[in-house]
Amino acid sequence: MEQKEFVASIPMPFTGESIVDGILVSWRIKPGEPVKKGQHIAEIETEKSTWDFEAPCAGEVVALKCSEGDVVDVGAPLLEIRTIDPDVRHLDRTSAEDGRHAAEAETGAATAPRINGRRDGGGSHSAGAEIFRQLSPRLKKMVQDSNIAEADLINIEATGPEGRLTASDIGKYLDELEAAANGGAPLLTCYIRGIGTYVPPKVVDNSAFMQDFTDINEEYIEKVTGIRERHWTEDETTSDLATKASLVALSAAGIKSKDLDLIILATTTPDMPLPATACAVQQKLGCTQIPAFDIAAACSGWLYALSIGRQYVQSGVYRNVLIIAAEVMSKFTDKTDRATAFLFGDGAGAAVLSSDRGSGGHEGHILSDITMQADSTGYDIIYRKAGGSEYPPGSKLENGDEYWYMDGGRMFRGAVTAFSDIIESVAKSANVPLGEFTWVVPHQANQRILKSVAHKLKVPMERFYFNIERYGNTSAASIPLCLKEMEDLGKLKKGDRLLLCAVGAGLTIAGGYITW
């Protein structure tokens, strides 16, 4: 009896109880090509190993369901193969789809219209209720505290991954309601008037690690991290770096420190736990009496701070706001820990935000909306235990608890997904096709991570700006260090769109864009 041909949907395989996903490193086949059973068709990296994925049947490749660099959940489709092999009959795509459509028809879901990426089977009230049901507990509380009716949720534009509402979406909706209630007074445009940076003069290249890591060489470090050298402080503090970057930014903006109305400093390495390092910067700049405070959002810190400062400027509360990111990462890095020793550098970046565009060579660049997110399921991926209320002075600590800890495998997978999602979210929110952004300027996390992101989004790597090879990962300071370097090298011209994105410990996630 002739066997009937069918299309098998081949899933990401289960490889162990603790493995929930894997990274598709590379494909070795293309649609339309024949495959043999047992043929190596892909390279996959999981938390514990990298291995060759073998075709479970012979046949012809119909489609590849994910791209190189994608993080794929166990059980999610990898590819489709046209085959007659009865051993994979249970993976018959047609049978599975017929079953799903029958189930949807039975519940009426298949014919329901989609609203904000979700199906509405019973008017705006039921659609709003469904949207509310899918919100996180924090966003549900935000909706309830703001007295937003469930039925009104369909009126809020959702810009998050897979059409989900974010806190920024809800905040924007509330701002629009408030503006309408106040006669529709327009928000002011926020300009970046000037950018300044500073790195310590001491340069540390990869040879500095050879005495502690005798089984690797300098080229290996550069291959796995993209880093050739980094700058480390000797006797400078975070506030010293921040002040020097701020003076450059003020000069570029054409204003004096006395013209500032607010200082916000993003850092995970403050001079002291108390008081705020922003106050030390204020003292060194000589602009006392204005508000100054720190925020801790790790590598996303500068974008978080930009978002806060932008809202003060837009609302007219303050005219000139100084936004700083400064990090002395080297002081908290265990130089013998293979997961973190090579990664971090020290540096600072600052920007002056203003409602005044400026003139005479000090014209500003338009700072558009910034999306902020956090995914606390990654809370334990990167941390430093010592010094907080959980482990105060006198606590019994393990050796090394005063240094950064990072689970590299989880960070890699989480960062690839988070970077990809926030980049797409920014482009969607801006209503600008991803291909029309001149540059993607990411936090300089790890070149392998960003290469996977570029593959996943099908964005040419040459459109991503990198300087990680010379500075390492400077956490919150990395994006302004990139922007200033791009400006100094003449890589930016009027009208360029720059998409900024960052993922940091927490996990904090942020993205936005500048029109140069």
How would you characterize the overall build of this protein?
The chain has 516 residues and is an alpha+beta fold. It folds into three domains: 95 residues, RNA polymerase II/Efflux pump adaptor protein, barrel-sandwich hybrid domain (OB fold (Dihydrolipoamide Acetyltransferase, E2P)); 59 residues, no CATH class; 325 residues, 3-Layer(aba) Sandwich (Peroxisomal Thiolase, Chain A, domain 1), CATH 3.40.47.10. Helix content is 29%, strand content 23%. The chain has twelve helices and 23 strands. The strands form six sheets. It has a nine-stranded mixed sheet with strand order 15-14-16-17-11-18-23-22-21, with helices on both faces. Strands 1-8-6-3 form a four-stranded antiparallel sheet, with no helix packed on it. It has a four-stranded antiparallel sheet with strand order 5-4-2-7. Helix 7 links the parallel strand 14 and strand 15. Helix 6 packs across helix 7 and helix 9 crosses helix 10. The termini are far apart. 42% of the residues are buried. About 5% of the residues have low confidence.
